[in-house]
Design a protein that fits this description.
The complex is a heterotrimer of chains A (349), B (315) and C (283).
Chain A: E1 3-7, H1 11-18, E2 23-30, E3 33-38, E4 52-54, H2 57-60, E5 64-71, E6 83-84, E7 92-97, H3 99-112, H4 120-126, E8 129-134, E9 160-164, E10 168-173, H5 176-185, E11 188-189, H6 192-209, H7 217-221, H8 224-228, H9 233-237, H10 245-249, E12 256-263, E13 266-273, H11 294-313, H12 324-328, H13 335-343
Parallel strand pairs in A: 2-7, 3-4, 7-8, 8-9
Antiparallel strand pairs in A: 1-10, 1-11, 2-3, 5-6, 5-13, 9-10, 12-13
Helix pairs in contact in A: 1-5
Chain B: H1 2-17, E1 23-29, E2 36-41, E3 50-51, E4 71-75, H2 77-88, E5 97-101, H3 110-115, E6 121-127, E7 130-135, E8 138-143, H4 150-153, E9 165-166, H5 181-187, H6 191-201, H7 210-214, H8 239-252, H9 262-266, H10 274-288
Parallel strand pairs in B: 1-4, 4-5, 5-9
Antiparallel strand pairs in B: 1-2, 1-3, 6-7, 7-8
Chain C: E1 10-19, E2 26-33, H1 36-41, E3 49-54, E4 58-63, E5 74-79, H2 83-89, E6 96-103, H3 109-112, E7 116-122, H4 127-137, E8 148-154, H5 163-171, E9 176-181, E10 192-193, H6 196-203, E11 211-216, H7 219-231, E12 239-242, E13 258-259, E14 262-263, E15 270-272, H8 273-277
Parallel strand pairs in C: 7-8, 7-11, 8-9, 9-10, 11-12
Antiparallel strand pairs in C: 1-2, 1-6, 2-5, 3-4, 3-6, 12-15, 13-14
Classes of the chains: A alpha/beta (349), B alpha/beta (315), C alpha/beta (283).
Chain lengths: 349, 315, 283
């Protein structure tokens, strides 16, 4: 697999070329920060970003996605029958995704692609994606991806890894799909040995910048019920206002709600991101609510991310250390602190 | 503001030691230097966790709604007005509260703090109206007045309206010249421009409800967005549904909002939704001469009927 | 490449609606598949549930009341309680809607082969128990099971589900029916009067390794029946329960029905008490 280089001054042109083959998704500036989304007609992925508040999760799982359409007019044929919403499966290039956000998409896939059921909405998007990663050369103080099985330069779940070297991006082509994108964008090959050396040096520097992390060996060893019944949850959750900030910022959170919306005789069934923090998340129609107290919902979220997922899939925690929840939480609920409290817990026998 | 921290700790220790309250609700140091975490302490030994500084952006009145215990509560000017409103609306009783009043010189805008540091912020301190922002290898001093949170720039009441004890000397109130300049600017827009303004304002909203949940006024057992019979508003990020949510919430808060800024401080997408509530505040000032939460005697005009009400809107 | 879509319901027509209880809150809906092939695909076992799907309203997870031995239709008994169930109750025979499923696990029929079965039901939780009884009593299946004892109770006779069938089963000698009501002013009431836990205590067989209890009912009934079973010697591995929880997708993806790491829609709704003892009580 080769190594490529593209001058930043030629980036827009390269993306225009790539657009002949791919629909592009990437970071876009909004006010003073960036969000990741599918780009309109002539949009260029903006790789000069630091604060990406909405993660690339939106490409494989948009916040609001129509699933079916239906008509309720009994004079029409096929009334009350659900019709799948058609999907444009043109290849998508997810450009500028951080390595840990790419790892997050693999975590999402564990939920949506199982032996028993496959979610077609997630998979039809995922299957047409090529992941062109962007190394995080300046990880934020809230980034702890190294202790989450990934990292700012991790190549594992990418088709290409781009690295910002100042005037250029150099890129390691990692798979055939990455190769195809390089060709479509007209990236030029560059000397591999020199590029590798630069990347290795920048990787070491970036990784050294991450001085914060989590440990979960004791969480793994402990019994689920013991952790659930630990006495610290109400204190941890006191400040929590049970909004959806952390769940929507999180690239690994996958909960969704299904809603029908009707206008006249025509309707759609859609799914929307949902948050386990919401009062109605678990509330039965009878009014019975197994997680009626706010701290029970806060506890459920952390137990899911740091224990239930860990036990169920045996592949680390359901967190990639991106740090978005920490920097966006209005009341400073810090998952690193919660993880430490859980991991340090010594139940009195 | 260090004097406040010391005094709050002393008061909290006394209250807990003497059993005059079951809990003291205040702020503690956060894991991020530009934030503060609301905390509830129940033992004297925990009182040294309490702090007060320019990062205490949340409104602690949000945490007392329908509690049944005796509560010591740290309250800046706006928070104290919300406590008054809570008492009037029967969400808490006056005699349950021991209000530790904090004469407040304003909160620092989180984004402006971050803009003033190249790398990550490591420490924020404040002395005499100057805020020192330390980051990796750099230290910058800015005047707090230059990085004040938007709502603090038009604050009408820095000193607590009710309190059992003050944690510091009262401060001079601001002399405001054009308090509603921001609202007037939008009011002056022609309809199409105004409509586009609000479309853009809410374009990034993700329906996370951080604004609603940070707001002490939003305590409905079931919020209108969660009702299903009938369903008033859709739950997606459809722009019409997003605006419906924000506009309706502003109307529900009309005549009750103290402009504490917790909503904007909480919003992860930096949406300036206070334009809506500030419009309602201006309307209440202009029409009814009403400022909410200034004393325990006056009921808000929107829940009182008087035969003398002008009612020109239905003439 | 089209992927199979687990969110796509089979279109069905409401063939019949029967009001089961005198308070009119429970109705049994008989559905017929619009496409006959779909009935074969909807290959279910007693204990499973399905999402009843009403375009424009939403979906509800309801236990399947019909038995797999009953052909040509499927039956669900639905309690009117919220937005979608109320709308369903207002629908008429001939209306079109959808069914997704079968979903969830079933009662552990493999394990139950050759065993004695004690079924305990209360109120409107009896639906999947009807499915189970009808399946077991079918001549094809009956001799695969040992003794069958049933205790089923409701507040009064007007609130019992499937009363005609209960009466018919009561006359059979291959099943021991114990129908009970909490109270009645009918002097000719031929069956038991008393709460389900008490009747269970009176009539249930002692436990042995070959006897399993399947229990479905409101939390208060379960709370007082479990100690009775424990006194009779039933181990927690031999007590089988079926849970309810708020659901949306029904296929283990939307996340909300979790109890600990188990998803009630996919790892359940059937669990043994031993399994439930290991999970947080969030249901």
């Amino acid at each position: 697999m080769k190594t490529i280089k593209i001058k930043k001054s030629e980036w827009a042109g390269a993306m225009d070329k790539a657009r002949n083959t791919y629909r592009l998704a990437g970071p876009v500036k909004h006010q003073d920060y960036h969000v990741f989304r599918e780009l309109e007609a002539a949009g260029i992925p903006d790789l000069e970003y630091g604060d990406l508040r909405i993660s690339p999760k939106t490409v494989v799982m948009p916040q609001s996605e129509p699933m079916f359409t239906f008509n309720l007019d009994e004079h029409k044929e096929d009334h009350h029958v659900l019709h799948e919403v058609p999907f444009d499966d043109t290849p998508r290039a997810v450009v500028g995704i951080r390595p840990y956000d790419a790892r997050a998409i693999q975590i999402l896939k564990k939920n949506f692609d199982t032996d028993d059921y496959q979610d077609p909405y997630f998979l039809r998007r995922y299957n047409c994606c090529t992941f062109i990663g962007l190394a995080d050369t300046d990880p934020s103080p809230t980034n702890f991806s190294l202790s989450c099985g990934t990292g700012p330069f991790d190549e594992t779940d990418l088709d290409m890894l781009l690295v910002d070297t100042g005037d250029d991006y150099i890129g390691k082509v990692l798979t055939d799909k990455g190769e195809a994108f390089a060709a479509a964008a007209g990236f030029k090959e560059t000397d591999a040995a020199e590029a590798d050396a630069t990347i290795a040096e920048m990787k070491t520097k970036a990784e050294a910048q991450i001085t914060t992390g989590v440990e979960y060996d004791n969480i793994a060893a402990m019994d689920e019920l013991t952790l659930h019944q630990a006495p610290f949850w109400e204190e941890i959750a006191f400040a929590c206002i049970n909004c959806g900030t952390c769940t929507f910022a999180c690239p690994t959170c996958w909960c969704f709600d299904i809603q029908d919306e009707v206008e006249g005789k025509h309707g759609i069934r859609m799914r929307n991101w949902d948050t386990c923090m919401s009062e109605v998340y678990s509330r039965h129609a009878s009014g019975h609510d197994p997680r009626g107290k706010p701290f029970q919902r806060t506890r459920n979220r952390f137990m899911h991310k740091l224990k239930y997922f860990l036990d169920k899939y045996n592949d680390g925690i359901m967190c990639v250390g991106c740090g978005r929840c920490i920097s966006q939480c209005p009341v400073n609920i810090d998952i690193r602190t919660v993880c430490k409290t859980m991991n340090d817990y010594q139940p009195e026998n | 503001m260090n004097q406040y921290t010391e005094r709050i700790r002393e008061i909290a220790k006394t209250l807990l030691r003497e059993g005059r309250v079951d809990v003291v609700i205040g702020f503690r140091k956060a894991s991020l230097p530009y934030m503060a975490e609301p905390v509830a302490i129940t033992r004297e030994a925990e009182a040294d966790q309490l702090i007060f500084d320019c990062n205490c952006r949340m409104n602690l009145a949000n945490y007392v709604t329908e509690r049944t215990d005796n509560i010591g509560i740290v309250a800046k000017g706006c928070d104290s007005r919300n406590l008054v409103n809570h008492i009037i609306e029967n969400k808490i009783a006056r005699d349950q509260l021991y209000v530790i009043g904090v004469p407040c010189t304003g909160m620092a805008d989180k984004n402006m703090l971050l803009e003033n540091a190249e790398g990550g912020i490591t420490e924020i301190t404040e002395t005499d109206g100057q805020v020192t922002i330390k980051s990796e290898g750099e230290e910058k001093q800015v005047a707090k007045a230059d990085i004040l949170q938007a709502n603090c720039r038009t604050c009408i009441r820095r000193n607590p309206v009710i309190y059992d004890e003050l944690a510091g000397d009262e401060v001079a109130e601001l002399e405001l010249t054009d308090r509603f300049a921001d609202v007037d600017e939008i009011d002056a827009m022609p309809p199409e421009e105004k409509s586009t303004f609000f479309d853009n304002l809410f374009a990034a909203c993700t329906r996370c409800y951080a604004c609603r949940n940070a707001c002490p006024l939003c305590y409905c057992p079931t919020c209108f967005v969660d009702e299903s019979r009938p369903q008033w508003v859709g739950k997606s990020v459809d722009p019409v549904d997003v605006k419906t949510y924000h506009f309706l919430r502003a109307f529900h808060d009309a005549g009750r909002c103290t402009d504490c800024g917790a909503c904007e401080a909480a919003c992860p997408m930096d949406i300036k939704m206070r334009y809506l509530t500030r419009k309602t505040i201006k309307t209440c000032v202009d029409r009814y001469g009403w400022e909410v939460g200034m004393n325990l005697e006056d009921r808000p005009p929107l829940d009182t009927y008087s035969p003398e009400d002008p009612d020109e809107f239905i003439r | 490449m089209t992927l199979p879509n687990p969110y796509q319901p089979y279109p069905v027509r409401i063939d019949n609606i029967k009001t089961e209880t005198e308070d009119r809150l429970l109705k049994t809906f008989t559905f017929v598949f619009l496409n006959p092939d779909d009935e074969d695909k909807f290959n279910y076992q007693a204990g499973q549930f399905a999402e009843l799907s009403i375009p424009g309203q939403g979906e509800i997870p309801i236990g399947i009341a019909s038995s797999p031995t009953e052909k040509g239709f499927v039956k669900f008994t639905v309690f009117r309680t919220g937005k979608v169930t109320s709308f369903l109750h207002s629908m008429e025979a001939g209306d079109i809607m959808g069914i997704r499923g079968p979903l969830g696990n079933c009662y552990p029929w493999e394990t139950l082969q050759g065993k004695n079965i004690l079924i305990i039901g209360g109120g409107f939780a009896f639906t999947t128990l009807r499915s189970s009884i009808k399946m077991m009593l079918d001549p094809v299946n009956r001799d695969r099971f040992g003794n069958i004892d049933v205790v089923y109770g409701a507040r009064n006779p007007g609130l019992l589900l499937y009363l005609d069938e209960l009466k018919e089963w009561e006359t059979r000698d291959d099943i021991n029916m114990h129908i009970t009501v909490d109270g009645t002013d009918d002097p000719d009431w031929p069956y038991h009067t008393g709460f389900v836990p008490k009747i269970t205590e009176d009539v249930a067989p002692e436990a042995d390794k070959d006897t399993y209890a399947i229990i479905c009912g409101p939390p208060v009934m379960i709370k007082f029946t479990l100690p009775v079973l424990e006194n009779l010697g039933y181990s927690h591995d031999n007590i089988i329960m079926s849970l309810e929880n708020r659901m949306k997708c029904g296929v283990g993806m939307c996340g909300r029905c979790n109890i600990g790491k188990e998803l009630v829609c996919k790892d359940g709704p059937v669990f043994t008490l031993a399994e439930l003892n290991e999970t947080p009580r969030e249901y």
